[in-house]
Write a structure and sequence with these properties.
about 300 residues, 15 helices, about 0% strand, disordered C terminus, mainly alpha, globular
Length: about 300
């Protein structure tokens, strides 16, 4: 299999696994979103540590923590990741998967804005059009939902900012996730001890829920490794288009499997965001072709 085809397999697999995670979290809905979040972090750390041990990278990974700058950056990214995971898990349990889909649809547009504000990039015409349509979409859906779309915007800003922070460091996905989950380990463990002590924990209350909570680590790390494999094999334009797979699956699951409300106003709002992403995708392909032709 060629490098490009293998990268495509990795990328599609990663986004599909991420896309179907709401079904996984729904099967553990007896546990609170905070218990799921804590278990996800702890078991992710276990899986990452095992993989690093097999790769003989454990010592070199933990040496990174000695750098105050690197530790500070990873502490910030750990906090952003915790917020993102927590909001998403809560939204799934609350029956608001469609709103989560909107958040991940908005993220590419947010990355464009970060390009202006942080990297002083100038926007092309299609990018301006995409951002304008995205802003209109948020406004329409806010009016339709009759409340500020905090779930969507929290997911978009936490993940977009997390990605931005990660750009500041040259560190592999596995190594960085290990340190990020390590930073959150003690608070997560303390919370689990607390709910075990007051009898509200679901861990250990049944074989199925206990196994699913333990496997939350693998469910987190596996798509991340697949995504990492895709990054080094695929051009930016292809990877940029593949990222729409996950929120599209969220949207379809929310509407057709979880029977979440989809009024005509919400359809219009999502129509605007889909149009925005179409223009952004066209621009991404055109800009990639232009840069390729200059090489």
């Amino acid at each position: 299999m060629s490098k490009n085809k293998l990268g495509l397999v990795y990328g599609v697999s990663a986004y599909f696994v991420w896309g179907f995670l709401p079904i996984y979290w729904k099967h553990i809905e007896k546990a609170s979103s905070f218990e799921i979040l804590a278990n996800r972090g702890i078991w992710s750390l276990v899986v990452c540590t095992l993989l690093l041990t097999l790769r003989k990278q454990l010592k070199s990974t933990f040496l990174i923590i000695k750098s105050k700058r690197m530790f500070s950056i990873l502490a910030i990214s750990s906090g952003l990741l915790t917020i993102n995971w927590g909001v998403f898990i809560w939204a799934v349990g609350a029956g608001r998967v469609v709103e989560s889909a909107l958040g991940y649809y908005i993220t590419p547009l947010l990355n464009v804005l970060f390009g202006i504000l942080v990297f002083r990039e100038s926007l092309r015409v299609l990018q301006w059009l995409a951002v304008a349509l995205g802003a209109a979409s948020v406004l329409i859906l806010a009016l339709e939902y009759h409340h500020f779309p905090w779930i969507s915007l929290s997911l978009a800003f936490s993940w977009g900012t997390y990605s931005l922070v990660k750009k500041l460091i040259d560190l592999g996905a596995l190594e960085s996730l290990t340190i990020e989950t390590l930073i959150a380990f003690l608070p997560s463990l303390a919370f689990l001890f607390y709910i075990e002590g007051n009898g509200t924990a679901q861990f250990g209350q049944g074989i199925m829920v206990t196994v699913l909570l333990c496997l939350a680590g693998a469910a987190t790390v596996i798509p991340l490794l697949l995504f990492n494999g895709a990054i080094v094999r695929l051009p930016l334009s292809t990877l940029g288009l593949l990222q729409y797979i996950t929120p599209t699956i969220f949207f379809l699951l929310g509407v057709f499997l979880f029977n979440e409300d989809m009024s005509s106003g919400k359809v219009v709002g999502f129509g605007f965001i889909w149009a925005a992403l179409l223009f952004l995708g066209i621009d991404l392909v055109k800009s990639n072709r232009t840069s390729t032709s200059k090489i």
